[in-house]
């Protein structure tokens, strides 16, 4: 694919802005997040087959899938894809937008993961349509995106995490995302959230203490691989949807 001349997802993307604070070390929040989303897919999806992560970034999430799966990743960041191939050497990676998955056959994947991707798309409905097309009937979509219904959005206003990345150009309400999924034969099985992990939220109280108090439910959910936090109790909308 040809990249737009103003493509913001270049080699600096994962080292600037919100990502400048991210640690890729074992047991970091990033590590646990990738483990959590992979476990959701493994628990709720088919036990074998082909897995596609759209917007795979550095490829760490795909390393959680065993030999019974063939893993694929796409991204529009060439530098990230080069790192992804190193991190997941058995994966197959391609330079592709979520809005154009024409490199893949219809109904060719059993699991598709789009972790905080759709909010970056100029035409997210096209992306959802393409994801539905390449998913086989009975296949699982794991989708996550900022949750506009989070009470912390109003509390933190312009400091809210969903507004911190300037490439978040397609923020929508959960109702809008769910309607879009249903339009393209993706039936939500579970709709939940990930807790309040973007502390501090309150003045005067030490930030580290707030991270423990606010982040404990989401941390426990991530460790156990559950999907129990209500939608309005977290920063992200997470959907497990089945292709009809």
Description:
With 244 residues, the chain is of the alpha/beta class. It has one domain (13-243): 3-Layer(aba) Sandwich (Rossmann fold), CATH 3.40.50.150. The chain is built from six helices and seven strands. It has a seven-stranded mixed sheet with strand order 3-2-1-4-5-7-6, sandwiched between helices. The longest helix is centred in the last third of the chain and has 18 residues, at 207-224. It is globular.
Main features:
alpha/beta; disordered N terminus; Rossmann fold; single chain; 244 residues; seven-stranded mixed sheet
Q: At the first level of CATH, what is the class? A: Alpha Beta
Please mark out the parts with pLDDT under 50 across 5 or more consecutive residues, or reply none. 1-5
Strand order of the largest sheet: 3-2-1-4-5-7-6
What does the radius of gyration come to? 17 Å
Task: Provide a concise account of the structure shown.
With 244 residues, this protein is an alpha/beta fold. Helix content is 29%, strand content 21%.
List the helices and strands and how they pair.
Layout: H1 29-44, E1 49-54, E2 69-75, H2 78-87, E3 92-95, E4 109-115, H3 124-134, E5 135-146, H4 151-156, H5 174-183, E6 186-192, H6 207-224, E7 236-243
Helix pairs in contact: 1-6
